[in-house]
Design brief:
Elements lengths: L2 H15 L3 H25 L3 E10 L9 E12 L5 E4 L1 H4 L4 E6 L5 E10 L4 E6 L22 E6 L7 E15 L5 E8 L11 E3 L5 E8 L10 E5 H14 L3 E4 L2 E3 L2 H6 L6 E6 L4 H4 L6 E2 L5 E2 L3 E5 L2 E2 L3 H7 L8 E8 L2 E8 L1 E4 L2
Antiparallel strand pairs: 1-2, 1-4, 2-3, 3-6, 4-5, 5-6, 7-8, 7-10, 8-9, 9-12, 10-11, 11-12, 13-22, 14-15, 15-18, 16-17, 18-19, 18-20, 20-21
Length: about 350
């Protein structure tokens, strides 16, 4: 082959072997970088994520003197610290008498006990009775600066398929979603990362491998992932978990009142405010002279006072008053606006301790 024909041949061979080399290299590099990130996050956290089995005692009949443990449900959790504390959802452990924990690539099951729970945030803490040789706590991140569109990954045990990774994005932040504890959970993270039954209690992770939330629920007509999942923000978890570990419960400020459920309130024609039913005699509301449902001299039941505001916060439901009081601490004094006999009144109430669970 002469030089005259060799040069065009070499040029043609180059383009056949490396078509659009620059463009394809850039696209492939981007794809592989994203894949490498997903692999890295999974490998960093897989040993921190556990399967939580909820067991309860069951009897075969009234005269059964030998009850047996039966599975009551399963979910996911993750290692919080080297002392063996595990964070999960309250609804994963609710009603359980004992709990078994399974780790990735470990055939042994480890017993755990309940340390404490905050149902209104759907968070619970377990502690291992026996620990593996090595524990791998997660790295908590921050959730107050999350951006819609950033990458989000979930590790869990959907449908019993252990340690499954799903990836997506943050779809929205600061959602208010009805939880298991009769109030809405504020600040919820919405994600399209696939979350299915069994994922509950598992970590939602950012691209740095840090935990930004606890996967909690899905919106779905079929009961499976529809691309709308929610996680409790890690900023809330970081406040709750240390208190549960220290006290076994969440100590909150409260007025010391019981409240009539909304559907009963409407039967009395009360559209605004909450009706006080009962009072803790040692609570701030009772000492401030607020009245609950009571009887008159003719033994007729009379409605209690109707609280309409706490300081600047309007309250029309238990959810409203719960979140209004999150802004205060035990010992603070608040101005309570209430209606009695059709007249609006105000009084100062000292907030006292109430327990969450």
């Amino acid at each position: 082959m002469t030089i005259r024909f060799a040069l065009p041949y070499l040029i043609l061979t180059f383009f056949l072997c490396f078509p659009l080399a620059h463009g394809q290299t850039t696209e492939t590099k981007m794809l592989l970088e994203n894949e490498r990130n997903s692999i890295s996050v999974f490998e960093k956290n897989v040993n921190s994520v556990v399967n939580v089995s909820n067991l309860r005692m069951a009897r075969r009949g009234f005269f059964d003197m030998d009850p047996m443990q039966v599975p009551a449900g399963a979910g996911t959790g993750f290692i919080w610290d080297e002392q063996g504390h595990i964070v999960t959802n309250f609804h994963v452990i609710a009603g359980g008498d004992s709990f078994l924990i399974s780790f990735h690539a470990d055939t042994k099951q480890y017993e755990a006990e309940l340390v404490g729970a905050e149902p209104r945030k759907d968070i619970a803490v377990l502690k291992l009775k026996e620990r593996p040789a090595k524990l791998f706590p997660v790295t908590p991140g921050e959730s107050n600066q999350l951006k819609v569109g950033q990458k989000a990954m979930a590790i869990g045990n959907p449908f019993g398929l252990d340690h499954t990774l799903t990836a997506g994005i943050i779809s929205a932040t600061n959602r208010k979603i009805q939880g298991i504890g009769d109030v809405k959970i504020h600040g919820m993270i919405q994600t399209d990362s696939s979350i299915n039954p069994g994922n509950s209690g598992g970590p939602l992770l950012d691209s740095g491998g840090k935990v930004i939330g606890v996967n909690t629920m899905i919106f779905s007509h079929s009961g499976t992932s529809s691309g709308v999942g929610f996680a409790v923000p890690i900023d809330s978890v970081k406040k709750i978990v240390p208190e549960l570990i220290k006290h076994g419960k969440i100590v909150r400020p409260g007025l010391g009142i019981g409240v009539l459920p909304d559907h009963h309130r409407r039967r009395f024609g009360v559209e605004k405010g909450i009706i006080v039913t009962t009072l803790d005699p040692n609570g701030g509301a009772a000492k401030a002279g607020i009245k609950g449902i009571h009887q008159d001299r003719r033994n007729r039941y009379l409605l209690g006072d109707i609280i309409t505001a706490v300081d600047k916060f309007e309250v029309n439901t238990f959810d409203d008053i719960y979140h209004a009081l999150e802004n205060y601490k035990i010992g603070d004094s608040v101005e309570v606006t209430y209606v009695r006999d059709g007249k609006e009144r105000k009084t100062k109430v000292l907030l006292t301790e109430i327990s969450s669970y």
